[in-house]
Amino acid sequence: MNMPPLTQSFVLHFGEMGSRWGVNRTVGQIYALLFVAERPLHADDIVERLGMSRSNVSMGLKELQGWRLVRLSHLPGDRRDYFSAPEDVWTIFQTLAEERQKREVEPTLSMLRTALLDAPDSAEERHVQARMQQMYEVMELATGWFDELRKLSPQTLRRLMSLGATVQKLIDVKDRIAVLPGGKSA
Question: Is the pTM of the predicted complex or chain greater than 0.85?
């Protein structure tokens, strides 16, 4: 690898983590390099810095484009494609969450909806459907919550996430205020 030690450490770590995140090592390393790069890089820059084959870099860039995690740009007078990662980490976070929802959550919800429409033939299938219904309800609730979060600005989302356990304390206070004398809810 042709890069400073700190960059190399970051790139190697992302490569190792890639397999845990559902991408291969090469894709993880390419993304990490683009994320920390001061300027957009073309494929030959990436090949030189990572010591990878041109075909691996090309395939990795295509996969990252499919995830909407890199942007393609051009420089005047230069025919090469240049690639960069979005600057705003909140935009990256939202893109990853949206892509994961599209690739993992939506197909599962679709399968569950279909399975819940079937009439169970046995007690065992009724049990299975009941468990699937519970999973469906949780996933639908989480999906709705995520849809609401996507509408927030990055600044509001950052503030909300920094609240942490304070949100639970606010809910507890609200619940105590809602109870009127005599134990009746408002």
Answer: no
Q: Are 67 and 83 in contact (CB under 8 A)?
A: no
Residue corresponding to tokens 């993880």: 28
| E strands present in 44-158 | 71-73, 82-84
C-alpha 23 chain-centroid distance: 12
How far apart (Å, rounded) are the C-alpha atoms in residues 103 and 22? Answer: 11
What is the topology classification, in CATH, of domain 5-84?
Arc Repressor Mutant, subunit A (1.10.10)
Residue 79 tokens, joined: 């025919």
Domain boundaries, the chain: 5-84, 89-151, 158-186
User: What are 65-114's pLDDT values in tens digits?
Assistant: 999 999 999 999 999 999 999 998 888 988 988 899 999 999 999 999 99
Whether residue 28 contacts residue 21, with contact meaning beta carbons closer than 8 Å, is answered with yes
